[in-house]
Amino acid sequence: MAQGLLIIVSxxxxxxxxxxxxxxxxxxxxxxxxxxxxxxxxRRNEEEGVHYFYxxxxxxxxxxxxxxxxxxxxxxxxxxxxxxxxxxxxxEKGYDVLLEIDVxxxxxxxxxxxxxxxxxxxxPDRDQLRERLQNRATETPEQIALRxxxxxxxxxxxxxxxxxxxxxxxxxxxxxxxxxxxxxxxKVSRGAQGAAGL
Length: 198
What we know:
Blueprint: E1 6-10, H1 17-27, E2 31-33, E3 37-38, E4 53-54, H2 57-65, E5 69-75, E6 78-83, H3 84-92, E7 96-100, H4 103-112, E8 117-122, H5 126-136, H6 141-154, E9 163-166, H7 170-185
Parallel strand pairs: 1-7, 1-8, 2-7, 3-4, 8-9
Antiparallel strand pairs: 3-6, 5-6
Helix pairs in contact: 1-7
């Protein structure tokens, strides 16, 4: 059985990464989502073990010290990280694993998994990014301002990724990411020729 693909989807806060990833999981039965850990407060519409594993600073730091995280980063005043065991297990079973993570974390994950498929999601423009953050109504004005300042820096990181997708219309963005995954599965370098008995 061929090993699955590790897919990293990243981009600025509010760009729509989560919505794209949710659509991908509904359409691709072989795609599993890795749930991240975070030290930030749980939002009112979030569930433990569905959106994140919510950890105290002490719990998170212990995971870092014990090498339990594939990557971790300090973003927007909180810690985030990807538990390693689940990702490795699913990849070995042949599932594709989707990481929806921030830019800092994705750079660290790329170093750990250089074969990862990396996709940077871009907003149509900066005004729409601001509007999406405000419409979420999950952050204070100060937190929104911080995320917008961070977004300016994150947008410069697009050159570190293999692919970029503009999230103007959701259906088009999801289709673009699906096309990327289909192409990656067909790469000869990933062993696609084995399916033909070559």
